[in-house]
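Tip: read the tokens left to right.
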């Protein structure tokens, strides 16, 4: 991932509609955009749709960008675009029907000594349901609080906590299966 911040001249040229500047800015933003999209979507067409929609918003809102960490700003834009895409999805309301309180007994944290590649971790995340994947990514990876997630998605904090809990449970199962498969390969 590129950590280079764009020059002010590049941002101004892209905002004014200069195509070459927009292409250069797209190339700078692309690694951040696609890595975020891959955590949420299986399908490469869906990934590219959200990447392109987010980049259009980057161009549209360049005038609102206040000097700082540009790529962090871009990451927030794609996160918001992903949330908007879920809201536009017909199944949105079906995904978030759970409103029962989440019990906080026992340890919800799961630790492992296993080392997984980024690709393996992304595949595990893609095994989660759409709603669990969205909430888990927003909470565990993007760093939003359950209160913020609840506000963004129009659900209760308990629903956000429940989806995070279910995602952790599923990820724990996947890690345990991976451990078991590795043990089987080393024995056999």
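Filled-in amino acids:
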């Amino acid at each position: 991932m590129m950590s280079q911040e764009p020059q002010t001249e590049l941002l101004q040229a892209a905002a004014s509609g200069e195509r070459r500047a927009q292409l250069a800015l797209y190339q700078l933003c692309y690694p951040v955009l696609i890595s975020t999209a891959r955590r949420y979507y299986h399908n490469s067409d869906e990934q590219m749709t959200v990447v392109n929609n987010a980049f259009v918003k980057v161009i549209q809102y360049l005038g609102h960008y206040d000097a700082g960490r540009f790529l962090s700003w871009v990451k927030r834009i794609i996160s918001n675009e992903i949330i908007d895409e879920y809201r536009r999805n017909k199944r949105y309301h079906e995904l978030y029907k759970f409103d029962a309180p989440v019990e906080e007994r026992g340890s919800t944290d799961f630790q492992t000594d296993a080392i997984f590649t980024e690709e393996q971790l992304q595949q595990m995340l893609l095994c989660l349901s759409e709603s669990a994947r969205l909430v888990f990514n927003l909470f565990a990876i993007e760093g939003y609080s359950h209160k913020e997630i609840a506000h963004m998605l129009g659900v209760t904090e308990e629903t956000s906590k429940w989806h995070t809990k279910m995602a952790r449970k599923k990820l724990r199962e996947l890690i345990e299966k991976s451990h078991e498969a590795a043990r089987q390969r080393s024995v056999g």
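Residues 97-113 have pLDDT under 50 and may be disordered. The chain is about 70% helix and 0% strand.
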